[in-house]
User: Fold this.
Amino acid sequence: MDAFFAQVEQVRLGLPPETPVACRQWDGLIAVGYAARSSGITRHMRASEAQKLCPELVMAHAASFKRGEDKWEYHPNPSADDYKISLDPYRHAGKKVLNIVKQYSSVVEKASVDESYLDLGPRIFNEMMVAFPQLHLLDNDLDNFLPAPPRPHELKIRGYNWDDLGVLEIVTDVSRFDADVRVHDDTLVTDWDDLVLMFGARIAKKMREQVHSELKYTCSAGIARCRSVAKLASAQNKPNNQTVVRAGALNNYLKKKSLTDIGGMGGKLGEEVLEKLGLDKESKDNITQVQALSKQQIQQKLQNSTLTEKVYSLCRGNLYRGLKTRIELKSMLSAKNFSRVPLKDRKTAEMWLVVFAGELAMRIVEHEKELGTCRRPKTVSLQHVRFKPTVKRSRQQELPLVHTNKLKEELFAAGVKLLKQIENEPENDAYPISMLSLSVTGFVELPAGASIGHFFKTITTEAREKAVEEKVKSQQVNTLWNKPKEEKKSAGKDITQFFAKKPKEKKEDDSSDKPIVPKPEEKKPSRSEADDYNSSSLFVFSDDEMDEYIDTFTCEKCDKKYPIDEEMEHSDWHVAVELSKAMKPEPKPMKVVKPKGKGKGDRQARLAF
Assistant:
């Protein structure tokens, strides 16, 4: 989407496209429309400064929650001390766009509130089989060659050309014969691959036109043979345009890019890769330098086969990954920073817990509607930061499975209970508070067809302990409790921290050129919806700082950190192990029993237990 937040406000206010519009949060701008950018206005600019540059600028303030209220509104002149920003209007608008996008492909991955990936392969295949009947004559032998594609003049007569299909990236050294006349035309279709992307561009154009027709939003698209290149291309010619990167133009296109421009290689990871490869991090076209390295050279410097394969393929536009059509959230967060005016007492803190509970309940219900299933979090956590001296604390508890209309009240009650626990800690004054948040984690999908009573009952500690004991007796402990996961490596120590699993060591007969076949991955979001907050600079805390006290807990028995939503299961695991040791009988020594009546050559050995 093009400057999506600003577009949402522009459409909401009924303003024409040529009106300069920006989305405002307190005294800063979090999104700037393209009409306003021509005046030199940029994101994060002060509102007063932007108004001087463009007196006719319309600065629409984002929606907000008022302290003590559980629903957001568009309040006039909200203050940072008494209000909390809500991104729900943009999520709602994003879902409307996504509903249109899904009409064009059944394989859609939502990357963020304003970005999605589409696999147009099946639709392109069906349309091309209708347009070119000669493709039906092919057998199923993949080693056979395809017939020659139709000649350019034939395609043009039939209306298949690149006209109005966006910007075509240039193919270098194009020199071909056509109709006995030597031409130098970069728009010629020379292979079926070009036709595939042409059909993809036609579909993308139609989809973008429908989004604008129905919702009044403009968007841009990138069409390429893999997602990493398509993402790069989508931002190439904004706004309201699309860019096509054909196979013949791929190498020339990537040479103008930096490794850190590619999705998944931005930020710290990309910079560390370039540093380990000994390349200039500031270069705008260092992909050319990476392409000059062999796979063996990259592996020697990175010492990580998975990362080597990724870097090697990304720089050549050859990294193919399937799309995840169902993005299931693992956590939700509602938070507010009070560093300017800290909270001084519980009464004020509880007013903000009303806001947090209302926001989380609303998002949980909307997420269920989007997925068409019932998914509820197992754990609710309160994160608390004391103001000067800074003390970070977190408390969590199980969240009972309650009916939708009771969810908000249950979240609020849990938040108050956890806040009281922090207040009652010895030698720690809970006030004043500089940051407070409520989060939910450990989402589970409730089984279809189960009774309401099965859905909405509180799991007591006694019930859990009884279940542990029963499963230990039946020797099924390992099916209920997972073993503790390895401690997460601290940030910044080694590049391998960016990968969930350490790659297995290569065997002697392994070749470094052998492609890595990825195993099926668990369904997980490429980006948490909590990132929508961070992307709008709503917090002064970095991701690492938030993770330090929000996402993990330290087990006293293991002296290791684990995900916070696994604390209760991890505790159960220790209980199960202790019970298992107490109940397990001492193993009898094994001895060899020689059966009687057998000849020397027929002797058998049996193990007695």
The chain has a mean pLDDT of 78. The longest strand covers residues 433-445. The chain is about 35% helix and 15% strand. The radius of gyration is 30 Å.
